[in-house]
Write a structure and sequence with these properties.
This protein is an alpha+beta fold. The protein has two domains: about 35 residues, GTP cyclohydrolase I, N-terminal domain (GTP Cyclohydrolase I, Chain A, domain 1, Orthogonal Bundle), CATH 1.10.286.10; about 130 residues, GTP cyclohydrolase I, C-terminal domain/NADPH-dependent 7-cyano-7-deazaguanine reductase, N-terminal domain (GTP Cyclohydrolase I, domain 2, 2-Layer Sandwich). The protein contains eight helices and seven strands. Strands 5-2-3-6-7 form a five-stranded mixed sheet, sandwiched between helices. Strands 1-4 form a two-stranded antiparallel sheet. It is elongated and about 65 Å long. The termini are far apart.
């Protein structure tokens, strides 16, 4: 039994469960495996994610990828938050392969996280790998820590944004992004 499995078994016992009952026999192993997957962003590298998929392009107009679904775990309660990420950027001689945007989102979402930091990490990564003139990222998410415990508000949504470069400096560029992203 791995240390993580052992710790899950200990948590179940502390909750008052009989860890020898049939339904829980493999739960520590399954929970440990699930947690390793849900936090795989710690063991993934941005270069591995991008895998050379940055291409020369003469396009200098805005590129927007909207509705990238993700899930993450809040670092305060280790409960899920689930949402959609919208990314826009203005290329400066290079564009990024389409699937890489979703992979960048997953890289940072699969860590214990707060939404505000997740938004910034995605924007920083897109800016770094593309060398773009500007980037905008908006995340909309529902947080289980607010829905399942505490205030228990089922329809609340948190929206965060990070604007960098021309997206921060130019209101028209920001507005174009928001409009194209459907926000």
């Amino acid at each position: 039994m791995s240390k993580l499995e052992s710790l899950y078994q200990e948590v179940l016992a502390e909750l008052g469960e009989d860890t020898s009952r049939e339904g829980l026999l493999d739960t520590p192993k399954r929970a440990a495996k699930a947690m390793q997957f849900l936090t795989s962003g710690y063991t993934t590298d941005i270069k591995e994610v991008i895998n050379g998929a940055v291409f020369t392009s003469e396009n200098d107009e805005m590129v927007v990828v909207q509705g990238i679904e993700f899930y993450s775990l809040c670092e305060h309660h280790v409960l899920p938050f689930i949402g959609r990420c919208h990314i826009g950027y203005l290329p400066d001689g290079q564009v990024l392969g389409l699937s890489k945007f979703a992979r960048i989102v997953d890289l940072f979402a699969r860590r214990l996280q707060i939404q505000e930091n997740l938004t910034k990490q995605i924007a920083d990564a897109v800016e770094e790998v593309t060398g773009c003139r500007g980037v905008g990222v908006v995340i909309e998410a529902q947080h289980m820590c607010m829905m399942m415990r505490g205030v228990q508000k089922q329809n609340s949504m948190m929206r965060t944004s990070v604007m960098k470069g021309v997206f921060r400096e130019n209101q028209a560029t920001r507005q174009e992004f928001m409009q194209l992203a459907g926000l």
